Amino acid sequence: MKKMVGNGGQHDVGMKEKVCGWVPEGFMSVNTSLGAGKAFLKSIHHQYIEWGVDFIKHDCVFGSDLSVDEITIVSQMMKEADHPITYSLSPGTSATPSMAKQVSGLANMYRITTDDWDSWRDVASHLNITRNFADAEMIGGSGLLGKSWPDLDMLPLGWLTDLEKLAFDYIASRLTLDEQRTQVHLASGDETRAWIASGRADEIYLAFFNLNNTRAMVSTVMSDIATALPWKRAVRSCRGKEVWSRRNMGVMNHTLSMAVEAHGSAHFVLNCSLKVGIYMQSLSLQS
User: Which residues form the Alpha galactosidase C-terminal domain (predicted)?
Assistant: First the structure.
């Protein structure tokens, strides 16, 4: 490890009055106002760089533990590295778009949610959060030596630790198949929600989400799809398919409708002869 020297002693490096919110036992912010604090951060990350580490998740510096100074110092170390390093920030407790704008250019990922496990309540709680960050145009923004992305972090799929027993005992995810598909997509709205984005080959990606406890018919009209796109160009018709069911939707001249299972989602790939940049926004839905 490269030796770094600065004013202040080792007992001054940690800020005991600013412990990490989710794990306060010994985890605290680094006092970057002291040379010793800066030296501590630089020496650790210099060691990571020497080891060839290419992904660093920096905890206790974002969300309710925001420390822009600490992030700035580490970000500069990443810039000076002799190989690319993805820089990720955590935790996401109480994270907001305005908070993210302070650090998005310094990192590549930043956590925007607390832990979510295999319950529908946890999955549904993320929907408004993702909408807010999409509306703030934080998706794929300028980042450290590239782009930066809001990070939902956890995918509680497959075999999971049983939180009730807190032991090395594993259970299958309790999310239904429809809920797992919704977890993979996520979006914005009310009891029915939607997500829209564009691809590189003129295609449009559209997803419906049903947060109700019963099956619901979800619809949108072609004009609403056009309104969600930046140039507000009219869309007369689209061809497309639904990804999960592989259903060919044919030509849609006015509306796009599908029955979506409770807590489920539908994901469409549409070709409407439009060329767009990446964009996400809420749609007007009918259900």
Answer: 190-269
pLDDT digits (tens, 9 = 90+) for 177-191: 888 888 876 645 557
- Would you state the structure tokens that stand for residue 8, as one six-digit string? 């202040």
Q: Give the per-residue pLDDT at 279.
A: 41
Residue 279, domain member (yes or no): no
pLDDT at 10 (0 to 100): 62
What SS3 state is found at 278?
A: coil
Least confident of 22-26, 220-224, 275-279: 275-279
What pLDDT does residue 260 have?
A: 92
Which tokens hold the place of 20?
A: 């990490």
Which stretches of 124-233 are assigned E, i.e. beta strand?
141-143, 146-151, 159-161, 170-172, 188-189, 192-198, 203-210, 216-221
Residue 82 sits in the same domain as residue 201: no
Q: Is 273 exposed, middle or buried (0-12, 13-18, 19+ CB in 10 A)?
A: exposed
Domain of 220? 184-271
Place of tokens 């839905």: 285
Identify each DSSP E strand in 9-116 by its residue range. 14-19, 28-30, 55-58, 86-89, 109-111
